[in-house]
Amino acid sequence: MPAATGHEVLAAVLQVRADELQVLLWQRGMDPDRGRWALxxxxxxxxxxxxxxVRRQLAEKVDVRGVxxxxxxxxxxxxxxxxxxxxxxTAFLGLVPSDVDPAxxxxxxxxxxxxxxxxxxxxxxIVEDARERLRAKLSYTNLGFALxxxxxxxxxxxxxxxxxxxxxxxxxxxxxxxTRRGVLAATGExxxxxxxxxxxxxxxxxxxxxxRVTDASAVLRPPGVRDSAxx
Amino acid sequence: MPAATGHEVLAAVLQVRADELQVLLWQRGMDPDRGRWALxxxxxxxxxxxxxxVRRQLAEKVDVRGVxxxxxxxxxxxxxxxxxxxxxxTAFLGLVPSDVDPAxxxxxxxxxxxxxxxxxxxxxxIVEDARERLRAKLSYTNLGFALxxxxxxxxxxxxxxxxxxxxxxxxxxxxxxxTRRGVLAATGExxxxxxxxxxxxxxxxxxxxxxRVTDASAVLRPPGVRDSAxx
DNA sequence: CCAAAAGTGTTTAGTGTACACCCATGC
DNA sequence: GCATGGGTGTACACTAAACACTTTTGG
Lengths: 231, 231
Known about the structure:
The structure is a homodimer. Chain A is of the alpha+beta class. Chain A folds into two domains: 6-133, Nucleoside Triphosphate Pyrophosphohydrolase; 141-206, Winged helix-like DNA-binding domain superfamily/Winged helix DNA-binding domain (Arc Repressor Mutant, subunit A). Chain A contains four helices and ten strands. The first copy, chain A, has helices at residues 50-59, 123-140, 154-165, 171-180; strands at residues 4-17, 20-27, 37-38, 41-43, 69-76, 87-95, 108-112, 151-153, 184-191, 201-206. In chain A, strands 1, 2, 3, 4, 5, 6 and 7 form a seven-stranded mixed sheet that branches. In chain A, a hairpin with a 2-residue loop joins strand 1 (4-17) and strand 2 (20-27). In chain A, helix 3 crosses helix 4. The interface between A and B is large, with 52 and 51 residues. Strand 1 of chain A pairs antiparallel with strand 1 of chain B. Chain B binds a DNA duplex through helix 4. Chains A, B: It comes from Pseudonocardia oroxyli. Chains A, B: InterPro entries: NUDIX_hydrolase-like_dom_sf, NUDIX_hydrolase_dom, WH-like_DNA-bd_sf, WH_DNA-bd_sf, WHD_NrtR. Chains A, B: This is 8-oxo-dGTP diphosphatase. Chains A, B: Residues 5-134 form the Nudix hydrolase domain.
């Protein structure tokens, strides 16, 4: 006999804009928490699971083709996380490549995750979880593909990693590590240098645009199996 | 205006018993799915979040002191995953050290995860997710502490890893890797050899009994920071 | 020629696997 | 002594960080 509760889905959609990691929020026009900024989302529909629901709700805010990766973060269920009726939330992380600028409704805006405005309910906590998840997965998976344009230079990619990780990243080592793991591949093209000159940069591409774990640890690996990421 | 739905929590409690990874299940006495085996769990209470709820529900089935680690796996929300009312489930992974044998009610039993009996609803999928989560975390965290007794020999620990991972593990390398990461420490004691003789094994202990990531990859690490696990 | 930006080479450190070998016990 | 199981030493392969150096452009 489960108690009747509502269920909503919420999405922390992250994108690197202007060299900062930003999140898409909309400003509530009604109480409770009128004027505060909230994550896009809404009620779970009767004929959908939470994954379908979050994609449907996102489609109402942004051009979904821009969202290259969506994954579940977890459940937020503090009894009074929202005033009034009991409402359990399933939170998601969404990622948008840096070269798209999806049209969004007038009450929505991007905000740097480091300097959030006044947020509604427990949404700041969800944004923090999303940022943590992104940080962790950037280093042991190929998740960078979801933040980067289809083609890019290594220094552009480095800037994305710097914004998302929050600490300096060497372009030299980034290129070498990702290439060795078989995550990056050169297209053979080069990009034109900027106004100050400099050697033209080689253009790279992610070899896959689906999540893959690239840094499986050794204790886990069955004996005799060489790490095959490099092939 | 969220639709009214029920919310339940479910726990896949895993333990290595008789050199096999097993899960605690109870046999349903009522329709639907009468006679099939189900995960322990139940409805989310009005004044608890899902973490509190799963601990409360587990306390009704097993001695909770035996459960050394609980973590959220995710939401299962297919519209008709349970017949009748809409019911969303938050699934958890729980781990019990191999040296405890908690008292359980008569309708519950441990089953090897490789040979599950007929299971209720989507519970087999949850068990599979739990096993996957355990496998992954064993290799890049110190999660072994949650499967092992407080003190143990390396070969006993090896047997736990073999059961959980499902592939051979070298005791030599397991010891070296975990020691180097600062996860294991010798107590100075030795265990008595078996009837067939053999050198007495040194007794080890996990240095921490809380989850810690031990294999942070390098790209993630800020420059100038040495991996400090070994200290 | 110089500054700027990109990319390569090389050194050093660390990690995990494999395997040979030595150690401590029961019989 | 010998079988048995436990533990160490060592060699090898691979990974990544740091940094010097070269390459290619614009002015």
